[in-house]
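For concreteness, we quote verbatim a single protein encoded this way:
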Amino acid sequence: MANDWMQALSNPLGIVVKKYMFDVLQERYLKHEDIIERVSHSLATRCDVEKFGKLILEVYEAGFMKAVNDNKEAWERLGYKPTIKQSPTPNAQQPQTIFKNTSQKNQD
């Protein structure tokens, strides 16, 4: 237990990575917990963690687009035209990040 605390204190960003991966994977997280644990220890800077998050999103998007394109002809034979629309970001001025901004004050 003390070893876990020392690891968490030596690399607090590891917890961010684990939480992010849990949020993405949900019930699939436990299957990959050992590799996530090792990866989380190697990402030592905030920049590394953000780049890792972007990598995961790129892989997810590439897989999604491949699935859509692989099945496009089948959908068209059924009379559907698959199209992907990008939804507008809620606040286009804010950069995408896996860190939550806790510095903003509640504005009423």
